[in-house]
Amino acid sequence: MISLSLNGKTVQLSATPDTPLLWALRDELGYTGTKFGCGIAACGACTVHVDGKPTRACVTTIESVADKQVTTIEAMDSNRIGQALQAAWIRNDVPQCGYCQSGQIMSAAALLARNPRPNDADIDAAMRRNLCRCGTYNRIRAAIKDAAATLSA
Amino acid sequence: MSTNAFPTRRDFLKGSAAATGALVIGFTLPLTSRFAQAAAAATSGAGFAPNAFLRIAANGQVTVICGLSEMGQGVHMGIASLVAEELDADWKSVQLEQAPVDKAYNNPIFGMQATGGSTAIRGHYEPMRKAGAAAREMLVTAAATQWGVDADRCHTQDGRVMGPDGRSAGYGELVAAASKLPVPQNPTLKDPKDFRILGKGLTRIDTPAKVNGSAGFGIDVKVPGLLTAVMVHAPVPGAKIVSVDDAAAKAIPGVKQVVQIPQGVAVLAEGYWTALKGRDALVVKWDDGPLGSLSSESISKLLADATTRPGAVARNEGDASVAVAKTVEAVYEAPYLAHACMEPMNCTAWVRAGEAEVWAPTQGPGPQQGIVAQLTGLPPEKVQVHTTYLGGGFGRRFAADFIIAATLISKAAGVPVKLVYTREDDMRAWFYRPAAVARFTAGLDAAGNPVSFTARIASPALSIAAGFAKELPQGIDEFAIEGIGDMLYAFPNLRVEYAQAEPGIPLWFWRSVGHSQNVYFIEAFIDEVAAAAGKDPVEFRRSLLSKQPRLRGVLDLAAQKAGWGSPLPQGVHRGVAITTCFGSFVAQVAEVSLDANGRPRVHRIVAAVDCGRTVNPDVIHRQVEGAIAYGLSAAMYEKITFRNGRVEQSNFDDYPMLRIDEMPKVEVHIVPSTEAPGGIGEPGLPPATPAVINAVFAATGKQVRTLPV
Fold first, then answer.
1. DSSP B499-527
2. How far apart are CA B595 and CA B169, in angstroms?
3. A111 shares a domain with A62
4. Do B412 and B457 fall into the same domain?
5. Domain match, A80 and A31 both
């Protein structure tokens, strides 16, 4: 059994150690907010935080995150940055199909945690590995700036 | 859990009405439970469901029931807005529920329950308003009768009926009385000047669930006893299985079954990761069949050669072979394209004795019900199709391949199965936007005026590939020529031909369909003709559109808003392109510079849109932005190629797509209009590519005739 902290609670996983965190979250624990997009860390749909760092859960084995702090989209309403981002996402009506948006918000949350007032270049650098096929990029950019403004107000 | 609860639609609606509040769409529950709940609650009698599209609970909660699929285009919002407007509902009390399959929810434009072709608002603008208006009339009549006043002296506002003497009643208080009244067949609709919801920019109702991970997509479906299936798919279209060695796969702990179906071999396990490991351990030998030597070079040659021979005549006006002073000729080519929805294709199917259930992110629950019925030998009413949220659609999710495979696997395995395509499976599963080649000739007189135009378009026939037609009427595939065969430019002599050429790759509808390549072809070529005539691209187009006020209107608006003709920063160039499709008119001006490698960098796109009356301007803005991104992504990067019959691309590393740092600023200007609503999911796409290409042409003097750039 592998043990880790998921959204602040200790969980035990019975999956084999080589199982990607993505599939342990989705299939064993039922946390389906984290999405499967590519399986090769090329789209960002599966982004979670491991000890606060944005991490692609599709290529991260559960063995490698044993005893670490894993945070998913399901916990984003319980911290200040997550709340600000979710509110800004709603105000700016960012999502279209919505499938990539968990990963977008997780990447954005990691950005704001280390850079409270990102400029366009900062946003590009932090978000360019999160694909959105619906083309919500300009709304994502606006919502990150909006959230940053509310957090520093 | 009851699995025999298949009430009729009437029962479903009555029951659902009674059970409102307790009825939350739950992706962890099979909907049979929900149907059973609804049926069980049907006897309590509270609530009001005058038609298939809404019900009002005793607590005033309004539920709009939508048969269309939400794939990001905002259709849930649009349908709810139409009903709520005429109902005069309190918007905060409106929720949306996905409909089961029933003829009541057929898309009036398609005659089946399906979403696509930018038809949602066009097809439902009036029917959904009538549904709301009928309910409103009944609630007013109920209140007026209770109060002993004339219904004419009552009015409605925010979910209440207001009487002449200051009395008022909430809709919830009136549902019992209203339920007993006859449903008016021709209710009075509002004058658009009185709209409070339509034409405004209310926040979408599906947004909150899409920012906290709770929105239920197909891939999130859970059913008790569910196994996940991952397949080995045929490597070449038409390939047949020769042998399967599943010993290594079955030896993997957690692998439950290996199932062979005509489409491939599936490994079933508890969870995706184990199923994938099992799939990767399978050894499947295939007979490639006749397409095993197909290559992109051979396809290009087939299409190009077809344009050198006379084709079927789609349009012939005047004499296109008339003598001219100057001739402009060009050959354009566009590649096969994948849809690459962010949610890979998937479907959960549960085939049981005497009944079946399917949970799918599908654009066509109606037709898919019939397909599952055929595959299982069940009558359609014994097949429930539950439509989830779609993680992107773009046409791809109208196809049935993933539903057929999941159904056959569940039928063979005897358990509920969630079939998940890996990204590589999804990328290589065909159903592509067809490749096409267009050969153009335009003739100018000595003064540079356009005199003649001919186009010969070679492409496989999508209408046959998609099963819409068994043979082509007059040899014409409408999808192959749309955007050129029906173009509005007034050349005095004009001829458009279609040359069918069939490489054999399965094809499908891709956002904006034939317009996606044909508007690139024609708009890029028009700039070549304008250049040969020595004319400004906007002025040249205007001169050919004197009888097309709406198309010329968006052209003028885009040119004005973009400052066409005004100075630009050093190295930045403008391009323009226009289209009319899906009942709407769009013009775009792109501002583009070239990097050191000559690759375009798109800074800004200014779009003007005339889509008739608007339902939600914010949704229109977003659909146009998204369509531009989808089009630019294809123009800049995307191309599916073949070697030995096999698709060469596999994932987002070798099929790159547009990212945030390449997304241009987009301005969308909507033309105020009282015309009937047009579509908006697709019309923003076709002009994006040629607007950018024409800016490159302005920069270099050399037109881009093959995509991607």
1. EE------B---TTTTHHHHHHHHHHHHH
2. 66
3. no
4. no
5. no
A42 and A108 together in one domain: no
Is pLDDT at B11 greater than 80 in this prediction? Answer: no
Of A36, A105, A134, Cβ closest to residue B392: A134
| Per-residue pLDDT at B433 exceeds 70 | yes
B418: enclosing H helix or E strand: strand B417-420
Please give the pLDDT value at position B180. 93
Pick the last residue of a domain from A44, A72, A100.
A72
Cβ contact B273–A26 (<8 Å): no
Residue found by looking up tokens 């040629």 in the block: B690
Q: Is residue B561, in this structure, part of any structural domain at all?
A: yes
Q: B229 touching A, CB under 8 A?
A: no
Q: Is pLDDT of B24 > 50?
A: no
CB of B576 closer than 8 Å to CB of B698: no
Same domain, A59 and A99: no
pLDDT in tens, B296-347: 999 999 999 999 999 999 999 999 999 999 999 999 999 999 999 999 999 9
CB–CB contact A37 B344 (8 Å): yes
| Chain segment B559-605, per-residue pLDDT in tens | 999 999 999 999 999 999 999 999 999 999 999 999 999 999 999 99
pLDDT, tens only, B490-522: 999 999 999 999 999 999 999 999 999 999 999
Q: Which domain holds residue B473?
A: 296-337+432-700
> In whole angstroms, what is the distance from residue B82 CA to residue B185 CA?
17
CB contact under 8 Å between A35 and B343, yes or no, is yes
Alpha-carbon gap: A153 to the closest alpha carbon of chain B (Å): 22
Q: The CATH number of the domain where A38 resides is what? A: 3.10.20.30
Whether residues A118 and A134 fall in one domain: yes
Tell me which H or E stretch contains B620: helix B617-636
What average pLDDT does the segment B414-419 reach? 98
Q: Do B189 and B259 belong together in one domain?
A: no
Q: Looking at the partner chain, which of B213, B271, B391 has a beta carbon nearest the beta carbon of A74?
A: B213
**Same domain for B322 and B361?**
no
Residues of chain B positioned with their CB less than 8 A from the CB of A89 = 207, 211
In angstroms, what separates the C-alpha of A58 from chain B's closest C-alpha? 10
ipTM: 0.98
* Cβ under 8 Å to A: B residues 416-435: 420, 422-423
- What is the domain count for chain A? 2
Domain membership flag for residue B20: no
Would you call B71 an interface residue with chain A, using a CB distance cutoff of 8 Å? yes
Whether residue B139 is predicted with pLDDT greater than 50 in this model: the reply is: yes
CATH code where residue A120 lies: 1.10.150.120
Residue A106 CA to residue A76 CA, distance in Å, equals: 8
245-274 of B, contacting A, C-beta below 8 A: 253, 270-274
Count of alpha carbons within 13 angstroms of residue B424, beta-carbon side: 14
For residue A61, give the chain B residue with the closest CA: B273
Q: What pLDDT sits at residue B267?
A: 98
Residues B355 and B476 in one domain: no
Question: Are residue A91 and residue A24 in the same domain, yes or no?
Answer: no
Q: What angle do CA B296, B344, B646 make, to 5 degrees?
A: 20
Q: Domain check: are B82 and B99 in the same one? A: yes
Render pLDDT for A67-121 as a digit per residue (tens, 0 to 9): 999 999 999 999 999 999 999 999 999 999 999 999 999 999 999 999 999 999 9
Q: How many CB pairs under 8 A join A and B?
A: 181
Q: How many domains are there within chain B? A: 3
User: In the β-sheet with B355-360, what is the strand arrangement from edge to edge?
Assistant: B255-261, B264-269, B227-233, B417-420, B346-352, B355-360, B383-387
Instruction: Report the alpha-carbon distance of residue B451 to residue B325 in Å, rounded.
Output: 9
Closest-CA residue of B relative to A94 is B207
A37 and A81 assigned to the same domain: no
Domain that holds residue A29: 2-72
Restricting to B residues 160-219, those with a Cβ less than 8 Å away from any Cβ of A are: 203-204, 206-217, 219
Query: CA neighbours within 13 Å on the CB side: how many for A107?
Result: 27
Residues A84 and A107 grouped into a single domain: yes
Chain B partners within 8 Å of A37 (Cβ): 342-344, 423, 652
Nearest to A131 among B342, B618, B626 (CB): B342
The domain boundary residue, chosen from B151, B186, B210: B210
